Amino acid sequence: MTQVIWIVLAVLATFSVGYLSYSKYLSRFVELDDDNETPAHKYEDGQEYVPAKKPVLLGHHYSSIAGGAPIVGPITAGAIWGWLPALLWIAIGNPLMGAVHDFVSLSGSLRHEGKSIGYIVGEYVGERGKNLLLWFAFLTIILVVAVFALVVAIVFNAFPQVTTASFVYIALAFIFGVYLYQLNGPFIPGTILFVGGVFAGVWLGIEFPFALFPGDYPAGTAVLFSGGGEWIPGAAELGVNTAAWVPIIMLYGALASALPVWVLLQPRDYLSSFLLYTGVGGGILAIIVGTIFASSSQPLVVDSSIPMFHGFWGAEGLLVPLFPILFITIACGTISGFHSLVSSGTTSKQLNKESDARLIGYGGMLGEGLLAALALSTLAVAGFAADAAAGGIGGALPNFATGGGIILTSFGIPTSVGAPFMALVLVSFLLTSTDTAVRLGRYMMEEIVGTPAGASDSGLSADPKSLVRGRYTNPIVQILPAYILVSSGQWVTLWALFGGANQLLAALALLTATIWLANWDDTKQLISTGAPMAVMVTITILGLSWLIFYDNLYVNIIQGEAATTIALASSVVQMVLAATLIYLALSLVKIGYGNIQRVRRNKSAVATDGGESED
């Protein structure tokens, strides 16, 4: 039997080599210098540009990038194709592609006043290129909000203990923000006090769980509404309780995104980072301890239902090709375009000094890879029924908590405590990512309509531009279409569309970095960003094409798998959206490639002629 520790050791080995060597090279390559004034200091406004201590900002960044995707993706991929293909993509792709992507997105934003990747590409290829990327990013943000809100709702339904604990830690974050930024309370004593409160919230959740509508819950769960709820959109497909939580979570994300970063974003992310570090680090350490001191009754070995390799077409009866679908099923854990929006959207506006970018950008992505490895390990120990391999979100999330609870028994922690704790770890990631995504969507729209990032605009006026970019009105523009997508009940195919869009956005972020480097200095090599960009463009366009022509056109429409009107409409919308994303991406790649060729050709001509050349 294969021991689960080999999954962990493989990832730790490649990640260590990447951070100790490649990240040092990249830091010198982009010329990080602490003597340079960062955008957080240059434009400090108390709203968006706020310098943050490195551990605080690392907590925000890690919490924001590590949502549910690095958990759902590896578990689903491992169940479909086996644990080895998933492990290889995480262990090799993360340090060579994903961490590079996050680091250069953050570094590029630092060199461009803390602006987004859309602004950066516009500086070199013009307004059309900027708008193409910003619209692509904005559409992807809507998918992110939809998927993450749904995942939180599913976890709240499966583990009502987590609902109580989540409310406790959000309330503590508000108080901690006031304590830290308004009352100027001492940092370390405050950390000890409030982190202790967050972990006490886990106990409160276990003792006093609650749900909105009746369901199969642990004994003692308080139910707020005794019955009904069938009228809620998506109730038939998702279940009443899950469907009821979705709009509440989206409204939370909208409200949280409108607040100054010091009120909730920074303190909550910092506090939740202790949950996340404990969950991820504790889970990894528990696997090591559980291997060294394994008991004969429950050794940490790969369950027989999870083979090393199922085959190219996946588990029996699924007909899902490993290439290219594996590489969009596992997105955040290896490489994720959403991270470029976080790096260039919120993180770059809070970076205290340039050298912090190495740990936060490159190291933060490695941390997410560890979460992906832990998720794959939870699948390995808990197992996954072959006929449930396509269960995606619905199957993956309970598996993570259940498998995590089994792993934590290595420390003597009962599964009745360990499973809800791991579920709270998951929700901590997701709540952070959800409202960060909505905030980033507002930044995208601010740049599309021409408002400088960081401008104070409530949106409460008759001006159409103010309405679409406003702090309070822009979130509505995002959550309404996101809610429609989720309430249709087509969440299984929605995940594939999210993965494809997210990975294609990563390719465009790498393209942006390559354009920036080419225009910066003709001595800069373009392989570190250009090679992963080319790989991701190829993989994601093939993956989205499969989604359009096979999953939706052939299976859902021609063969009639989309049996209801709303399911049929959802398939059509997904096809149109996927085709639109492919068009936007290819258009931008063409413009960007032309810019790189022109810049390098002109600089070569200048070097040869000893003077200026015509453009």
Q: If you had to describe this structure to a student in words, what would you say it looks like?
A:
It contains 22 helices and 2 strands. The N and C termini lie far apart (64 Å). Mean pLDDT is 84; it is low at 385-392 and 611-615. Helices cover 72% and strands 1% of the residues. It is globular, with a radius of gyration of 23 Å. The chain is an all-alpha fold and 615 residues long. The protein has a two-stranded parallel sheet with strand order 1-2.
Q: Topology of this protein?
A:
Elements: H1 5-29, H2 39-42, H3 54-65, H4 69-81, H5 83-110, H6 117-125, H7 127-158, H8 160-182, H9 187-207, E1 210-211, E2 222-223, H10 235-238, H11 240-258, H12 265-292, H13 322-329, H14 337-345, H15 356-382, H16 392-408, H17 415-448, H18 464-469, H19 474-487, H20 491-520, H21 527-558, H22 565-609
Parallel strand pairs: 1-2
Helix pairs in contact: 1-5, 1-15, 3-12, 3-15, 3-17, 4-5, 4-13, 4-15, 4-16, 5-14, 5-15, 5-20, 6-7, 6-20, 7-8, 7-11, 7-16, 7-17, 7-19, 7-20, 7-22, 8-9, 8-12, 8-17, 9-12, 9-17, 11-17, 11-19, 12-17, 13-20, 13-21, 14-17, 14-20, 15-16, 16-17, 17-19, 20-21, 20-22, 21-22
Radius of gyration: 23 Å
Number of separate strands: 2
Major sheet, described briefly?
A: 2 strands, parallel
Question: How many helical elements?
Answer: 22
Parts with pLDDT < 50 across at least 5 consecutive residues: 385-392, 611-615
Strand content: under 5%
Please trace the helix and strand order, writing H or E for each element.
HHHHHHHHHEEHHHHHHHHHHHHH
What is the share of helical residues?
A: over 70%
Measured between the Cα atoms of the first and last residue, the distance is 64 Å
Q: Main sheet: which strands, in order across?
A: 1-2
Write down the overall mean pLDDT.
Answer: 84
Shape: globular
Structural class: mainly alpha
